[in-house]
């Protein structure tokens, strides 16, 4: 999407207005994840939006970790998030932490208490929650709300000095217990956590809440526009109240909310994803079935495709759901341009060409045939692959008794072996279970290169791998882990059999593919080479553009309705 097109959305319009009015002389944004898990596909929108807007105006974008909950956070997640942001193609102007500001945040908290704008509440958390009321029903004042500032300050300092146990007291802002916005009903600013922090160690036993740390951290960093997803819209009045209460205004950051990036067949709740990992339903956060950025990378999704998809979807004020097939379409388009083509037989049976020539020792003659590396890229050239009389073909490419409209191998039918010859099936061999394990066929020597000199046509072309030259590999294909189009965000149905694993026969060149590189298995799909011993590949995307099919079906349905 061009710069001009991207500038049309409401956030970019607001940024332009703020620059024109002088409210924001320098555009500064930030991406502020909590390091309590791995980034998922939804985070890509916030990353792209924040970095793009900063770059469009010659500004800066920080990566700032909201590390205010030591019980859930870990350096492992910090490192992974930094790596994922850079993998997407963005370099932060600074990598910062809310914990960098703990001293300043606490100093401001003492100032609020001294001015009678915050108080220490010694009630249990469940009572405080119940006293907040509900929509249309005002909350109930805490019995500690009107305690003298001097006493509150002494209690806050007691909390800071580790003299109280977890949950024994919290610091609350004194706002309005009847406010129509629930977050304004005397929100908690600090809570006691006798937990080791991954950066500050045991220096602190009280930790700021998100609402207290977020806006003030923005102000400390001079953020001009604090871009948040829609669930933080109700937090904006408190965001502004806390900036007013502390007097931090250099320049004053402005929170703007935008719709999240949601996909069909996808759940991005950290709680759900953490459960999948903990229960062994997946093989970790980078399992290719997961919707994390690390999983997408392992599966072979190019960072460029994810960024391009985010820019294509654009910025909106209302939540919506994007078909996951659209992302896969961007992925497929990227790989179609650059991925090398190779042959892989996932469910192999033997094809023996009975009239194939043999040498003086009775061994099948080996020919080298030219195969195109990428028809979309003429500069990719061709490669030579060995062809002989004993080949691996897909089990699904042969039928002992063919159903109507089945055009591949069946007794008496002729098909093309890609890049090689026409062959006609004669008979087959079955194992003790009645499964076909070997097909016998004859070839026409005149059809070298896959074309008949007499102009006759065949209705199918199948791929193959020479048995003598094949290497063994493992190939994983994937159905939807969340089979429902719109899965329950909290308790989704899980397809435990979504991964199908094959002991495949691979073209020898696939052994040399580097980990992380994606190739097209001809007639099958795009696959990414995994790390580790032996060739292991994960399905990235199929060959069929399901997004185009969905749009075609929608257009047809609309035409029928009209």
What does this entry look like structurally?
The chain is an alpha/beta fold. It folds into two domains: 3-258, HUPs (Rossmann fold, 3-Layer(aba) Sandwich); 342-562, Ribosomal Protein L25, Chain P (Beta Barrel), CATH 2.40.240.10. The chain is 28% helix and 23% strand. It has 14 helices and 27 strands. The strands form seven sheets. A seven-stranded mixed β-sheet has the order 12-25-26-27-23-24-13. Strand 1 (28-31), helix 3 and strand 2 (60-65) form a beta-alpha-beta unit. Helix 8 (210-220) packs across helix 9 (236-246), helix 12 crosses helix 13 and helix 13 (324-338) crosses helix 14. The longest helix is centred in the C-terminal third of the chain and has 16 residues, at 546-561.
SSE arrangement:
Blueprint: H1 3-6, H2 10-21, E1 28-31, H3 43-56, E2 60-65, H4 75-87, E3 94-97, H5 102-114, E4 118-121, H6 125-131, H7 149-160, E5 170-173, E6 188-192, E7 206-208, H8 210-220, E8 225-229, H9 236-246, E9 254-258, E10 261-263, H10 270-278, H11 293-299, H12 303-313, E11 320-322, H13 324-338, E12 340-342, E13 344-345, E14 348-353, E15 367-372, E16 382-387, E17 390-394, E18 414-417, E19 422-430, E20 436-444, E21 461-462, E22 465-466, E23 471-478, E24 499-506, E25 518-521, E26 525-529, E27 536-542, H14 546-561
Parallel strand pairs: 1-2, 2-3, 8-9, 10-11, 12-25, 14-20, 18-21, 23-27
Antiparallel strand pairs: 4-5, 5-6, 6-7, 13-24, 14-17, 15-16, 17-22, 18-19, 19-20, 23-24, 25-26, 26-27
Helix pairs in contact: 3-12, 8-9, 12-13, 13-14
